[in-house]
Structure formats: C-alpha cells, structure tokens
C-alpha cells in the first residue's frame, strides 16, 4: 500500500498528478489547505481522503493504512516529522518531495527521509548546499508541471491582460526579503498605469494562504481560468510562473532586492529577472519560448519516473 501525505498545496498537486496514473492500492492524506486546493483543481482522488493536519494524525494514518512506501511533502511541518519518525519504526520507506527549485531551507527536520525526490541535478546540489538531508536523491522532474493542461492562447492577443501570481511573502518572511507581494504588486500596477497605450486588465491570483488581493487588482482563486485569459504572467518566485511558461505566456520575474534570485529558471539563466517593474518593457514580445522548451524537455516522463521509484522502494 502506498500513502501520499501532503501538508501544503503545491506538494498535493505534485502528488495528484502521480496517483491519477498509478496502478496500485493507495491512500491519500491531506491538510485542510491542500484539500481545498485540490478541490478547486477538481483533482481529489475518487476515494475519501484522510486528515493530515497535525502530529496526532500521523500515528493514526500508519495504523489505518499500514503503508509500505510513503510519498511525503517537505515543508517543515510537525506532522511531516511525526509521520517520518513513525515510518522509520515501522520499516515503511519515506520519500520526501521538493517540488520546485527553491525554498530548500527549513524543509526537513531532525528525522531524515530515506529518499529525497527533486527535479534535477541542480536541485539536488542546491538542496544539499542549503543543509538538505544526507539521503539518497532521485531526479524525477515535476509531475504537476508535466501534467498541467496546455491552454489555448488568450482571445485578446493585444498584450493587455496581465496576471499577477500572489505569494504570502509578508506572512512567511516579514520584511526579511526587502519586498513582499503588496509592494511588488503596487509597483507593477503603477508601472502599467503609466503607459497610456496599454489598457491593462490586472488580475491577481490568490495563493491558497492569502485572503485578499492588493488594491487595484481583480482577484481570483481559479488558476486555470486566470491563466487561460492572461497574456503576461508576473510574479516574484512562485512555482506557478512555470505553468505560465509551459503554456506559452510571457513571464516577467520581479524581485526588487539584488540578493539571491529565488526563482529557478531565472537563477539558472533561462529567463531575465527584473529588479524593478519600471525596467520592464510591457509592450515587448515574449522572449520565453526557449526557456519553455528546455523545461518541457526536462519534465518529460516525470510521472513515470516517480511511479518507478515508488514501486522500487515498495519492493526494497
């Protein structure tokens, strides 16, 4: 029996892309925020899910499911540590997933998994150098990105529809980054409004942990509809920017501070990162095709690689 346990939304979407393809018995445990995210995506499994909201859920999960192999999110949440610890005693193999090229710090606690699933060799190197576990690393790609439905180009075609991808940076980082979702969104709005030739329509895609959009934006939680209508996708380092790339949208990455670039594709030289919205030529044609092609090639076969890994750990 396989157990998928996700404490946050991104990891849940990663896992959902896998369990739709797997041909073996499995159970799914989700936190509230992960459940609601998959519900909006219409990606919940057919069978009822189990609760994965606190440390007390872990022992009950293992007792009920009796898993041989566990695919577990890596967000530093207490329930992840508790489940990993119990699985060690029960001889269930644990693989924790890192679903993007960033945020390696504070993902793992004192109990290390047997395996860490990362996108590629760059992700492994960055994870290890950021204090990641001394475990076996497997390079699997990113199933959710691979599975994300390809959308048709937006109807407008005039470069007027902009989607800002939200992140709860204030709540997570405070002022440590030197910027947050509110300050960058305001800068983008001001920059676009200064160009009279653009009749910009600004939509803000709320992160599952956000309650409301900054001033001047139309807010939405429907990621698929928002992306289908957008011509340009703007953000700081949300992994959803990758979905924009893979669907042929122009992606603009803005991180005002000149410190470490937190968005993998721009840090790896595939995209330009802007320090300020004022430096963006909003009328320029997209220069993202090459980056999208390279990432698409990297992702090909992600779901199958994860399934092969899980079947191998179950037999180990």
Keywords:
alpha/beta; 7-stranded parallel sheet; 316 residues; elongated
Describe this structure in words.
It contains 13 helices and 13 strands. By secondary structure, the protein is α/β, with parallel strands linked by helices. Helix 11 links the parallel strand 12 and strand 13. Helix 1 (9-19) crosses helix 2 and helix 3 packs parallel to helix 4 (78-90). The chain is elongated, with a radius of gyration of 20 Å. The relative contact order is 0.13. The mean pLDDT is 92.
Radius of gyration: 20 Å
Tally the helices: what do you get? 13
DSSP strand tally: 13
Strand order of the largest sheet: 3-2-1-4-5-6-7
Low-confidence residue ranges: none
Category from helices, strands and their pairing: alpha/beta
SSE order in H/E notation? EHEHEHEHEEHEHEHHEEHEHEHEHH
Q: What is the terminal separation in angstroms? A: 13 Å
Q: How helix-rich are the residues, as a percent range?
A: 25-40%
Strand count, sense and closure of the main sheet?
A: 7 strands, parallel
> Taking all residues together, what is the mean pLDDT?
92
Classify the beta-strand content into a percent band.
15-25%
Q: What spatial form do the alpha-carbon principal axes imply? A: elongated
């Amino acid at each position: 029996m396989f157990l998928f346990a996700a404490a946050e939304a991104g990891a849940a979407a990663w896992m959902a892309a896998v369990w739709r393809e797997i041909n073996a018995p499995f159970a799914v445990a989700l936190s509230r925020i992960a459940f609601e995210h998959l519900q909006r995506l219409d990606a919940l499994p057919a069978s009822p899910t189990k609760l994965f909201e606190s440390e007390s859920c872990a022992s009950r999960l293992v007792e009920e499911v009796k898993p041989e192999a566990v695919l577990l999110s890596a967000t530093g949440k207490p329930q992840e540590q508790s489940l990993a610890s119990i699985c060690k005693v029960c001889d269930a193999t644990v693989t924790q997933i890192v679903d993007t090229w960033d945020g390696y710090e504070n993902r793992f606690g004192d109990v290390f998994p047997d395996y860490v699933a990362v996108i590629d060799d760059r992700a492994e190197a960055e994870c290890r150098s950021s204090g990641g576990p001394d475990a076996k690393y497997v390079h699997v790609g990113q199933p959710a990105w691979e599975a994300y439905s390809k959308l048709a180009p937006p109807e407008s075609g005039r470069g007027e529809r902009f989607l800002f991808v939200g992140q709860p940076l204030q709540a997570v980082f405070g002022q440590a980054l030197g910027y947050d979702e509110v300050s960058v969104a305001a800068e983008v709005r001001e920059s676009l409004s200064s160009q009279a030739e653009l009749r910009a329509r600004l939509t803000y895609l709320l992160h599952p942990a956000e309650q409301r959009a900054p001033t001047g934006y139309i807010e939405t939680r429907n990621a698929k509809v928002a992306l289908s209508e957008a011509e340009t996708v703007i953000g700081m380092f949300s992994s959803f920017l990758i979905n924009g790339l893979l669907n042929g949208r122009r992606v603009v990455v803005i991180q005002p501070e000149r410190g470490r670039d937190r968005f993998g594709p721009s840090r790896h030289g595939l995209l330009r990162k802007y320090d300020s919205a004022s430096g963006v030529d909003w009328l320029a044609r997209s220069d993202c095709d090459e980056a999208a092609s390279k990432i698409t090639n990297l992702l090909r076969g992600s779901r199958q690689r994860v399934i092969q890994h899980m079947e191998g750990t179950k037999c180990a």
